[in-house]
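look at this stuff:

>
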Amino acid sequence: MRERDQLTQSLGKLGDFQNRLDDALALLELAETEGEDALVLEAEETIALLQKEARRLQIESLLSGEADANDCFLEVHAGAGGTEAQDWALMLQRMYMRWAEAHKYKLEWIEESAGEEAGIKSCTVRVKGHQAFGWLKTECGVHRLVRISPYDSNARRHTSFASIGVYPVVDDAIEIDIEEKDLRIDTYRSSGAGGQHVNTTDSAVRITHLPTGIAVQCQNERSQHKNKAQAMSMLRSRLYERELQAREEAAQASNAQKSEIGWGHQIRSYVLHPYQMVKDLRTGVERGNSAAVLDGDIDVFLEAALAARVGQERT
């Protein structure tokens, strides 16, 4: 049923695209007959939008990986730098949330750790929708911000870092074996809002996979049982993503996009001072409207990174 729904959705997109293209071409023919410049401009604007959509549909057709069609967990972690880095992490969280909302993805908050003065230390959000993982999987890495700090009374320029992790939600079609003896399960009180019950009981759960050191946590549910189930789902996703990375590195050891997330592996720089520029360091794609990018307009970076990855996988 899910596969049928996805195919129906894809065919619907293609049908709508064809209808809009036919309408634009008919409008051009009418403009030539009537000699109306306004109609020509309207048709040209429509065709320009269709060209952009065509590029996106082309990339969507290439998202055929084992888990590309699945939902995903998106994690944001502030780097060193205290309030500056935590505020930057919150800005990135908002950027991805605005992107997801613009593309009709649903969001489910899993965990969030607030900063001491502003921003967040970390957060985990589940992005629900067709090909959520496929579109966001290239965003893993370190993102760098350069700006005049609003928290510096001397108005000095600061550089802040935050890292992004994206992991596919593993469904029943993918088997991940986890032994109970390999897990350490800790409970603690939720630090977020949620009412008296959440804040006075040990409902939050943290699970550590001892062989790999991978740790996940969930605190969005009032029930410890539900939080544990969600955390186990996240752990299965992290272990699956680890396996995907191992396969890819084995097949192509020189693949720079799958290098370890660290301060020496920035994938994108966001410069707000002394000039406005967002640049992807992997593909060389640049945009001067940094405000639009931070407001969720990141499709140009996603498309370029995915196209580059597909090209590498084919060579």
